[in-house]
């Protein structure tokens, strides 16, 4: 069966049911997102799906979903959103995948910890403020494609190994072709050095069949198969839905070819990590509120205040935009990583960059470069929007607070000037402390709740402890003979 393109946001329950009948769909896969940001699913024969399914939902056990409910209150319901459906290209039987919202049984209230609900509340809060009626999001996800991945943990051992035929360390292997990608030189040579053009193109084909408009793809800077595929910007929830589908499609196309894709920010030592640069803007009645032909970087004062909110709250934001211990292996000062809490028209080490190569009233936007794709997109986008709105409502001036603009090479600044530039947190534990101290802006409009934030911090502290308490192989190399 040739998958049909379903345009996100345009489908009703009736249209989905008609599509199922006309296209011979055999199964419907209902999906929800857990707190860390991974899809969970249940599959139902298409013959069992009708309008009542969209009205009553599909029951599931919430106690088995990370960050949801305890076993004593585990009954929950996922309500399918017909506007978020696409044909799954990886199943043997024709299957339609549908993203769902999470509800409590009985009264059928929305579940406060559902990340999709938090994103929907952020969009509603934006409209309530009267500042804008729409936010636009264009994340750029980077990832690695490896030929082999091995890792193991035990009380007496810990190891990992990744490999790629195009990796710099494989120039000496038997049967090599001499076209391995040098460290930090993967951006972006043609074949035969770039071995993954066809693989990325196939990923793009599947993304487009799923209704996601692809703009470009290319090899990224690092050796060993680092890649990037860009897709068109959209509204907050729609774009978060697209990120979930994007990661699913990238992983499974790689698997189709016996390879494995990862969005882990720093799987390699000594080479570039993978980020998720997030372009964002606000509009009202179709007019881009970030544009000002005479402003710095063609940005309006409203956009500068939005930047002020992002940079002021960035230490707390990283708890959502960079939510793993591995995130901070990438965010290291002195390298290309965007750790500096400043804004700039061109400096890619700045946390906020203003794209100006094709500046226009339609395209004016900011780019927050710190995030990575281990983020739950619903939570990360919602948190960024709330920080930006706080900057607008409180008139946070990034210039007055010393956040730039800085258009010079930050690494060549003198010591005193360099010392005035703040950096993002150096660890997940530090970012969680900042979130505990600075989260009032997230609570406005009931978008986030204290209970949710406490749950998130507890979940992430458990992950941080799992890494912090374990002996590291490098410690044996450094200290075994101490």
UniProtKB/TrEMBL annotation:
Keyword annotations of the record: ATP-binding, Cytoplasm, Ligase, Magnesium, Metal-binding, Nucleotide-binding, Phosphoprotein
UniProt domain GS catalytic: residue ranges: 115-482
Domain GS beta-grasp positions: 23-107
UniProt-annotated location(s): Cytoplasm
Primary site of residence: cytoplasm
GO molecular function: ATP binding; glutamine synthetase activity; metal ion binding
Record's GO cellular component terms: cytoplasm; membrane
Residues bearing PTM O-AMP-tyrosine: 411
Protein's name in the database: Glutamine synthetase
Protein residues bound to L-glutamate: 272-273, 330, 336, 348, 369
GO biological processes: glutamine biosynthetic process; nitrogen utilization
Alphabetized NCBIfam families for the sequence: GlnA (TIGR00653)
EC number(s) per entry: 6.3.1.2
Sequence positions that bind ATP: 215, 279-281, 348
Binding-site residues, Mg(2+): 140, 142, 220, 228, 277, 367
Reaction catalysis annotation: L-glutamate + NH4(+) + ATP = L-glutamine + ADP + phosphate + H(+)
Similarity section: Belongs to the glutamine synthetase family.
Cofactor note: Binds 2 Mg(2+) ions per subunit.
Classification via Gene3D superfamilies: Glutamine synthetase, N-terminal domain, Glutamine synthetase/guanido kinase, catalytic domain
Entry cofactors: Mg(2+)
Source superkingdom: Bacteria
